[in-house]
Amino acid sequence: MPKHRLTTPGPTQVPEQALLAMARQVTHHRTPEFRCLLAEVLADLKHVFVTENDVLLLTCSGTGAMEAAVVNLVPHGGKAIVLSSGKFSERWAEICEKFGIRPVRYEVPWGQPFEPGRVEQLLRQHPDAVAVFSTLMETSTGVGHDIKGIGQVVGRSDALLVVDGISGVGATECRTDAWGIDVLVVGAQKALMTPPGLALLAVSPAAWQQIESIDRPAFYFDLPAYRKALRGPNTPYTPAIPLVAALAESLRSIRSEGIEQVWARASLLSRATRAGIEALGLELFAARPADGMTAVRFPEGIDGKALLGRLQQRFGVKLAGGQGPVAGKIFRIAQMGLCDELDVISTLSAIELVLVEMGQPAKLGAGVTAASRVLAQTGGELCPHPGASDEAAAELRR
Questions:
Q1: CATH class, range 16-256
Q2: Which DSSP string corresponds to 29-75?
Q3: What does the pLDDT look like over 105-133, one tens digit per residue?
Q4: Are 216 and 195 in contact (CB under 8 A)?
């Protein structure tokens, strides 16, 4: 049986120290020990999110936090502008409709980015829109959206900016406060290197003002209850305690490396992956690729499902396929979390071998060589292994 090599954009590989943290005896969540742990987690999350705003921890998937953002911000019958570019950004509109909120859709073809100018036009046409729901990284297409630019135009209106950063935060640059993000939604199972089950929200003072002004059809997801519990700090309901302990370990690793360094490493690995993919004669899918993942079109005439199955059976390499209208047309590779240089090289090598075995005109070594050239340009300065000790990482950067 081959080794299991998880290279999907969520869930991602989990650091050994985080796995070990979950093996410890469960503590009680209403104790000084847990409050101390939670305080550390919330402080480290502020570092990762680049924010001074309140950060809330929910025991749920990222979709749960998306629902919490919608029902706490926009009243029944209210209006919101939804930026839709793929399967996951479409979810904003689906949640809105479920709760009687009117979504004004700005849709772009899958693989294309949003234009801040178009968002500005919609805000002028719909001055009563309470919020703009957008996405940092569209995981179904590999597109990284211009949230900084969108934040500038939303900031000139009365609307609030809500961003799905579930997969992007911790891999691609995201400056919550500087970019005017009022609510940032993040999942722990992506670049934050924690098993699925936790979601985070950063909430601005302006968002809190809006939240307190409306009736909210929520109980478990009523965000003021979580804000009140921050005084402990604690959570209003029983959290997934082992997952919080695991998240604490993963965040310590990120904090010791520094979020700017994490972004730079993910960017380097993504550039190397894209160079390798193009050297193999394959085509990138995203017009504006995000750092942290790469979406690739299958070669013409190849059975995509068979290629992915062969990669997993032959080498244990688990890639993600396409969804919705791009199912069977693209595959997706992560460059986030524990991903390192050898993960990039080995994944490209496996893709090369399988392509050749399936009769494709790929040149063996071409992808690996192109990626290696990109990685060699830094002399290893940007890529200490994310699981390395503080001392070892410092020595590599010296």
A1: alpha beta
A2: SSSHHHHHHHHHHHHHHHHHHT--SEEEEEES-HHHHHHHHHHHHS-
A3: 999 999 999 999 999 999 999 999 999 99
A4: no
Separation between Cα atoms, residue 225 and residue 389, nearest integer Å: 38
The span from the CA of 195 to the CA of 247, in Å, is 8
Sequence-distant (≥ 6) Cβ neighbours of residue 7 within 8 angstroms:
317, 318, 319, 333, 334, 339, 343, 347
> Which residue intervals of the chain are DSSP H helices?
16-22, 32-49, 62-73, 90-98, 116-125, 147-154, 205-212, 223-229, 241-257, 259-279, 304-315, 341-357, 366-376, 390-397
pLDDT tens digits, one per residue of 373-390? 999 998 766 666 566 555
At position 276, the amino acid (one-letter code) is: G
Measure Cα distances from 150 to 32, 51, 92, 121, 134 in Å.
41, 18, 17, 12, 9
Q: Alpha-carbon distance 34 to 21, whole Å? A: 13
Position 138 pLDDT exceeds 60: yes
Q: Domain-by-domain residue ranges, the chain?
A: 5-9+258-397, 16-256
CA distance 198 to 244: 8
Task: Supply the mean pLDDT for the chain.
Answer: 95
Q: Could you identify the residue written with the tokens 């969108």?
A: 150
Q: Which of 281, 381, 379, 295 is nearest to 110 (CA)?
A: 295
Nearest Cα residue to 277 out of 255, 297, 257, 247: 297
Beta strands 54-59 and 198-203: pairing type? antiparallel
Which CATH superfamily includes the segment(s) 5-9+258-397? Aspartate Aminotransferase, domain 1 (3.90.1150.10)
